[in-house]
Amino acid sequence: MQASPDFRKQVEDLKQLKVRNDRGGMVPLGAISSVRDVTGPVMVIRYNMYPSAFVNGDAAPGTSSGQAIERLEAVTQQDLPPAMRAEWTELALLQLQAGNTAMLAFLLAVVLVFLVLAAQYESWSLPLAVILVVPMCLLCSIAGVQIGQMDINIFTQVGFVVLVGLACKNAILIVEFAKQRRDAGVPRREATLEAVKLRLRPIIMTSFAFILGVVPLVIAVGAGAEMRRTLGTAVFAGMLGVTLFGIFLTPVFFYVIQWIGDRRERRRENDPVPGQER
């Protein structure tokens, strides 16, 4: 029901609008209703079809976005009445929707490194001597982040992917030379020891060059320093673990895997060919 604009500009004009009563007659609205002035919202905000109120917040210095989201969710669950609930929008919503995609990228990075090494060494077992050092560097990286009282966020996850390549690089220096010596006929133990002695210096030099290079990130100050410190701490602690554990564990991994491979090779040579007498 709508009248011409000239007949609905004033309140008195609205009172002249007529409605039908229970007897079928037309009665003006002014005869059965009253008009009074009240205040109300200029705009009613809705989100997902429900009335809502926007609350904008920012994380305190030294607090990551993941920690801020967890704390806000804890506050809303504790203080909001049952008829209300909190919903995230914009960047926080995108962060929650992303979920653990970074960990999936990390797993794909490990698989990619393994496949490249398998093609290079023409073996499915030898790349394990390189990949098995990765969990140690991740444990050291997580320990460093926890000691620094930080959380595992997108920056530390990026650091994990970086550590995969760095850890494998150091291990490849040992495994590659040991495999070459083994293919040349050098016994397994001597080939492993030669690789360790020859590759120790380049591993130490490259590792500590990188470790010292990320020190400015660890001690960063100023705007955005919490992001740089998180990434720097994760990579710094992880590279320390790679350097300390990789030097000792990578030769052990290579020796054990090569020993298993040699046993299989001897067993295959000793097994009789079907249809052939020994």
What are the main properties of this structure?
278 residues, mainly alpha, 2 domains, two-stranded antiparallel ribbon, elongated
What's the gist of this structure?
The protein is mainly alpha-helical. It folds into 2 domains: 46-95, no CATH class; 100-270, Multidrug efflux transporter AcrB transmembrane domain (Multidrug efflux transporter AcrB transmembrane fold, Up-down Bundle).
Helix and strand composition category: mainly alpha
Q: Give the C-alpha Rg.
A: 35 Å
Give me the side-by-side strand order of the main sheet: 1-2
* Helix content bin: 55-70%
Unreliable parts? none
- SS strand fraction: under 5%
Q: What composes the largest sheet?
A: 2 strands, antiparallel
Overall strand count:
4
Q: What is the quaternary state of this protein?
A: single chain
State the CATH topology of the largest domain: Multidrug efflux transporter AcrB transmembrane fold
H and E order = HEEEEHHHHHHHHH
Name of the level-1 CATH class of the largest domain: Mainly Alpha
What is the typical, i.e. mean, pLDDT? Answer: 81
CATH 4th-level superfamily of the largest domain = Multidrug efflux transporter AcrB transmembrane domain
Tally the helices. Answer: 10
CATH architecture of the largest domain: Up-down Bundle
Number of domains: 2
Termini separation (Å)?
105 Å
Q: How would you describe the shape?
A: elongated
